[in-house]
Each structure stands twice: as structure tokens, then as C-alpha cells.
Design brief:
Largest interface: A-B, 18 and 19 residues
Shape of chain B: elongated
Shape of chain A: globular
Number of strands of chain A: 0
CATH topology of chain A: Non-ribosomal Peptide Synthetase Peptidyl Carrier Protein, Chain A
Number of domains of chain A: 1
Distance between the termini of chain B: 56 Å
CATH class of the largest domain in chain B: Alpha Beta
Radius of gyration of chain A: 11 Å
Number of strands of chain B: 18
CATH class of chain A: Mainly Alpha
CATH superfamily of chain A: ACP-like
Number of helices of chain B: 23
Oligomer: heterodimer
CATH architecture of chain A: Orthogonal Bundle
CATH topology of the largest domain in chain B: Rossmann fold
Number of domains of chain B: 3
Radius of gyration of chain B: 30 Å
Number of helices of chain A: 4
Order of helices and strands of chain A: HHHH
CATH architecture of the largest domain in chain B: 3-Layer(aba) Sandwich
Chain lengths: 80, 579
């Protein structure tokens, strides 16, 4: 189940940033992924919300600035 | 389309991009709000129709200036958001007086004129109708905003021509619902307003225009007869028992269907029949059934026989000399529909819905398949009427060119030198600015503070105002001097994208050089460092009379003998020094 969530997040990130899944690791962030700018960040939030049927709050969306943080926020959202 | 998730669209669009080999159809979107999510959604929708669309955007809030720059695109789509005509108009408008309201109206009209003049040779220009729904849908009284939108839309109506069309934005919002159309979460921080769901519907309203411009509008509507033009089966129920009279419940549905078909025929759509029936039985209905509206003169081709429909449809395309992809066929039988779908995938097939009362709705919703951009006599009459109306109103200022337009804005820039009170904003713009950023160096508030306190650094920032408002601090230059104060190096030069296109960068450069002269600097050095996004400023220093000393793929170095600097001295930009 947990792996599945990781896979879904990475899938979404790969579509949004137009990169392959292999390029995404725990440290992935706007510093390591060239196409990750503020507009793509919006796209990411919307795609994740659709994928997991959740609604992210303003403060959560600004925190989602690397893969690990995204994963922990999504996990928290899903379990609550 | 509606059923697909946004991430699925991104994925499928990428796949189509790699597969489509046809030359690209370039669409530029000019907007004064952020609508970037439309890109892949629109591309995907059109790529599904084998139009190799490539969507790009003008700079944020730069519609007037970019209309010239992108005039060679195949199509230009304009998102002119009423509430961002001037920043915060949605709340400011209720507090301003009539004169100011008129001024905003006239300014926008003049901008519309200039934009459409720049785009007069662009083959397709789509401009969204102005709407107040995002901010005023719950108002009982008519607001100033409503009145402004009404007048601007009226003005736009008069501008419709063979290449300029309006997109009925409110129909899109109505179809999605106001609250489902809006995501205010990013409005105040990023000026993004509309949801992905909104864009999914919006693109459906844009598609018919693009299809028509690409010669892909459907040309013929072909009916199977039984249970598609009338209720019942002619061969079994007989001439007297088939229903298409507006006076009976089932008949009313088919009466409406025939009326819609008749109206399409008047607009030039060919009507045909393709039915498994005895030909003489069909002929008798067409000639003499009292409730039949489609008569022989409306029906261009009639294939009523006992051959299979696939062969008949191929014959129809051949005889009409049009492609199978120009045909729309309506049938009620799932068997026939599936068979044709499989064997003739190019034909658009509509199946009569099981809930019969939804049949007219289905046909109405598909009328856009036949949408044709060609200009009719009715269109020109309507425009004449609008034009006369508009002429009666006050004479409005015409702009000769961009400079003339910029002069009307009463632009002023305010220069801040080493100003500690704006450290957070200065740091923020180094973090956020990508396009007009010569070196793309990111600095924290601490870094900026250190620069200000260091006597060998000079931090210059500016804000821009025009007669409609102030953009706040939107530009920055960081200079560092050598020990003798003779050589200054421009470490950072950037400007927020929302003020690009007003030539303020040149006025700012005049100020920078002026301040350096006063400091007795002899030489100014500068650098362009290439990034993913700053291509547009690659030659900025060349335009400012700097000499290129060395360059490679990623870096261009410049030097300027300060006495050789040629100031631009733009008379239409006022300069205020805020020490």
C-alpha cells in the first residue's frame, strides 16, 4: 500500500515535470529538477489532489518543496 | 475529455506529441492572468483531431505589446480578465467615480483597437467575452463592473471579422458552474484564477474555431431514417404510424431533430440519408408525409437500399467528393454503430440516446462540429449596427503605435538606493524572477542586507506606476565596485515579468549609469548567464550600448566605457529618486 502511494506520487511528478520516474529520488526538489518552477508547482498540486481525491491547504502546498515532504504530506492527508 | 484526470492528459499529450509528424499549428495565448494549465489540455484536445497544436504564452499582462510580437502565430487566443484590467479592479471599481470609470473603459477600448490592429493579418484571433461572474455572480444589483463588462462586450461585438471571433466565456462558466470554475487559492499570490475543470470545458468551445480554420469542420449530416428522423420502423409500422409530429410526445422529439437539421442545412451543411429500407417507401415519406420537414430539395444524397451501411457511407463520401472524416452519421442501432466505428473510424457517429428526450440536446450539442468560420451577410449587418452605435459615443483616443500608447499610460519609475525597508521584497524578486533576469542569482534577505551594508556594493531597486496604479517594487540591480571605485560590475539585473514591455528597463539603465557616473566610475562590466528561461534578455546589454567582449554558449561578457553610454532618455517615463 505504502509503495503504491510512492509509485503514484512519482508517476504524477514524472508527468508534471516531463521527466522519467528513475530521475526522481528522495532529494528531488526545484533545485535538482530543472522544470520545477512555481507554475509547475501549481500543476503538481492539482494533479496530486485529483490522484488522491484530497484537497491541499494553502500552507501545505507551499511546503511541498521536495519529494520526501510531498510524500509525508500526502500520507498524512490520506490517513486522516 | 472531461473524464480524464489532469495527469492523464499530461501523459497522453506527451505521447501524442511524440507520434504526430505533421507540421505544428502554433497557438499563442495572451493574457493578463495566469492560465498556463490550458496548454496541455488544449494541445491534447487538438492533437486527438490530428492538429499538431503547440501552445505558448505571451508574457504575463502584456497583451498589447505581445500582440505585435506573436502576430505570425496560426492562432492567438486572448484572455482579458476584467478584474485585472487594473490590479484589484473587482474591489476598486465600486469606489471610483464615473470619470475614472470612463477612463478605464476608454483605455481598454483603445487597447483592444491596438491589439486587433496588430493582429489584423493573423488567421485566427479568439478573444474571450468579458465577464463579471468570478466576482459578481451573487450581486443582486447591477454593479459598475457589470456595466463595464457590458459596454466592453458591446464594443467587442463590433470588432468581429472573418478572423476575429469571440468566445462566449460565460457559457463556459455556466456549463462548469461558477464555483467549480474558480480556484482562488492561487489568485492573490499568482493571479491564477481558473480550474483545470474549467479549462477542460473552455477548450471545447475553442475547438470548433480551430477545426474550421484547419478545414476540419464536418460537412455532411447523414441520417439512418427509422428512429432517427421519425419514431417507428417504416417497413413494419407503415406510413401512417411513424411519428414526427410536434403534437405527440415522441413525435415532438423528431420534429425538433428535423428542424435542427433544416437549420444546419440553411447554413450550408449537406443532409443525406443512409437507411435499410425499400427506396420507394422512403421516397414516399420524403415527398408526401405531412409531418416531414426535410424534403427532397434539402436532401443532397439518398442511399436507401438493402446494402450494408459501410459500403453506402463510403459511396456517399465518394459521390459528394468529401472525406469520410467530413461525415457525421446518426443511427439508433448499437450493432450498426459499433460496426461502422470499427470499419470506418474516420466517420463521426452519433447514437440516438436511450432516453429519447435527450436526443435533440445531443444533436444541438454537436452542432459545433459543423461550425464554419466563413463570414456571412448576417454577420456583416450585425457589425454595421454595432459600429454605428459605437460611433455615436464619445470620440476615443486612437494610438498610432506602441510608443504613443505607452506615453498615454503616464509611466513613472521610482528608484530606491540601498533602501533597507524593502529588503524582504528585494530578496523575494531575486528568488522568483526567471525571464527578465540577466544572471539568475538567488539571494536571501541576509545576503541583501550584507550588500547594503558593504560600501563597495550598490543596490538599486525600482517600482513602476502608471495612471491606473502602482506595481510596487518590481526591478533590481546589484552592483559591486572594485577597491578604487573605478570599475563597477553588474552582479544582478532583473525585472518582474509583469512589467515587461513598457521599456522601463531602458529608463532604469539610464538611472544606473547616471548613478555610477556620479560615483566617478569609469567602466561598467556586465554579464548574461544563460538559464532555461532568460533567452529573451540575451541581447539586452547589446541594446544598451555595452560592448560584447567574450561569449560562449552559456555566458556573454560585456564592458562599457561609461562616457560612451548612449542614454535612451525616454520622454514618456518619468523618474523619481527616493533616497
Amino acid at each position: 500500500m505504502k509503495n503504491n502511494i510512492e509509485k503514484r506520487i512519482k508517476n504524477i511528478m514524472s508527468f508534471v515535470f516531463s521527466i522519467s520516474i528513475e530521475e526522481i529520488d528522495d532529494e528531488s526538489s526545484p533545485d535538482t529538477i530543472e522544470s520545477w518552477d512555481s507554475l509547475k508547482q501549481m500543476n503538481l498540486v492539482i494533479a496530486l489532489e485529483e490522484e488522491f481525491s484530497i484537497e491541499l491547504k494553502d500552507n501545505e502546498t507551499v511546503e511541498m518543496l521536495n519529494y520526501l515532504l510531498i510524500r509525508s504530506i500526502i500520507n498524512e492527508k490520506i490517513s486522516s | 475529455m472531461i473524464g480524464l484526470k489532469y495527469s492523464e492528459i499530461l501523459k497522453l499529450n506527451k505521447e501524442l506529441e511524440n507520434n504526430l509528424k505533421s507540421s505544428s499549428y502554433d497557438i499563442t495565448i495572451l493574457s493578463n492572468i495566469i492560465v498556463h494549465q490550458i496548454k496541455e489540455i488544449l494541445e491534447y484536445l487538438l492533437r486527438c483531431e490530428v492538429i499538431n497544436a503547440s501552445v505558448e504564452f505571451g508574457d504575463y499582462d502584456n497583451i498589447v505589446q505581445d500582440s505585435h510580437k506573436y502576430k505570425d502565430s496560426n492562432a492567438v487566443i486572448i484572455f482579458w480578465e476584467l478584474c485585472n484590467i487594473i490590479d484589484g479592479l473587482q474591489y476598486k471599481i465600486e469606489l471610483i467615480n464615473n470619470d475614472q470609470l470612463d477612463e478605464i473603459l476608454e483605455k481598454t477600448k483603445s487597447e483592444i483597437d491596438l491589439v486587433l490592429k496588430n493582429l489584423e493579418n493573423t488567421s485566427l484571433v479568439l478573444i474571450n467575452k468579458f465577464t463579471t461572474l468570478p466576482f459578481s455572480s451573487s450581486n443582486i444589483r447591477e454593479t459598475n463592473l457589470d456595466r463595464l463588462a457590458e459596454q466592453l462586450n458591446y464594443y467587442l461585438e463590433g470588432k468581429i471579422s472573418s478572423n476575429v471571433r469571440m468566445v462566449d466565456f460565460e457559457k463556459v462558466i455556466a456549463s462548469v458552474g461558477v464555483s467549480n470554475s474558480l480556484d482562488l487559492r492561487y489568485y492573490y499570490s499568482s493571479k491564477a484564477l481558473y480550474t483545470v475543470d474549467f479549462f477542460k470545458t473552455y477548450v471545447e468551445y475553442v475547438k470548433p474555431f480551430v477545426m474550421s480554420a484547419n478545414g476540419k469542420a464536418k460537412k455532411a449530416l447523414i441520417f439512418d431514417c427509422d428512429n432517427t428522423l421519425w419514431k417507428g420502423i417504416l417497413g413494419e409500422d407503415g406510413f401512417d404510424n411513424i411519428e414526427m409530429s410536434s403534437k405527440t410526445k415522441n413525435g415532438a422529439v423528431f420534429s425538433e431533430i428535423q428542424a435542427i437539421a433544416l437549420a444546419l442545412n440553411r447554413q450550408g451543411v449537406l443532409i443525406g440519408l443512409c437507411s435499410k429500407n425499400n427506396p420507394e417507401d422512403i421516397d414516399e415519406v420524403v415527398e408526401s408525409h405531412p409531418d416531414m420537414q426535410l424534403r427532397d430539395k434539402h436532401i443532397t444524397i439518398n442511399k436507401s437500399n438493402w446494402l450494408d451501411k459501410v459500403s453506402n457511407l463510403k459511396d456517399i463520401a465518394n459521390e459528394l467528393n468529401i472525406g469520410l472524416d467530413s461525415l457525421v452519421f446518426i443511427d439508433d442501432s448499437s450493432f450498426e454503430v459499433n460496426l461502422i466505428r470499427e470499419q470506418l473510424p474516420d466517420i463521426t457517429i452519433l447514437q440516438v440516446p436511450e432516453r429519447l428526450y435527450e436526443y435533440p440536446k445531443m444533436l444541438r450539442e454537436n452542432r459545433s462540429l459543423f461550425f464554419n468560420l466563413s463570414f456571412t451577410a448576417e454577420d456583416s449587418k450585425k457589425i454595421e449596427m454595432y459600429e454605428q452605435q459605437v460611433k455615436r459615443k464619445a470620440v476615443k483616443k486612437e494610438f498610432a503605435d506602441i510608443e504613443d500608447y505607452l506615453a498615454s499610460l503616464e509611466l513613472k519609475i521610482t528608484i530606491y538606493e540601498d533602501d533597507k525597508s524593502i529588503i524582504p521584497r528585494m530578496s523575494q524578486i531575486t528568488q522568483k524572477t526567471n525571464q527578465f533576469n540577466l544572471t539568475t542569482k538567488r539571494y536571501t534577505e541576509g545576503d541583501i542586507k550584507n550588500f547594503i551594508e558593504n560600501e563597495f556594493f550598490k543596490i538599486l531597486a525600482f517600482s513602476v506606476a502608471d495612471k491606473f496604479g502602482d506595481s510596487g517594487v518590481t526591478g533590481l540591480c546589484i552592483l559591486n565596485m572594485d577597491d578604487n571605485n573605478k570599475i563597477a560590475n553588474i552582479d544582478t539585473l532583473l525585472m518582474s515579468c509583469r512589467i515587461i514591455g513598457r521599456n522601463v528597463e531602458y529608463a532604469f539603465m539610464d538611472c544606473i549609469i547616471d548613478i555610477m557616473k556620479r560615483r566617478k566610475v569609469n567602466v561598467v562590466r556586465s554579464q548574461y548567464i544563460k538559464s532555461q528561461k532568460n533567452e529573451q534578455v540575451k541581447e539586452f546589454y547589446d541594446k544598451c550600448s555595452f560592448d560584447l567582449t567574450e561569449s560562449n554558449d552559456s555566458i556573454r561578457n560585456y564592458t562599457l566605457d561609461i562616457n560612451m553610454y548612449v542614454p535612451k532618455q525616454l520622454t514618456y517615463i518619468g523618474i523619481i529618486n527616493e533616497k
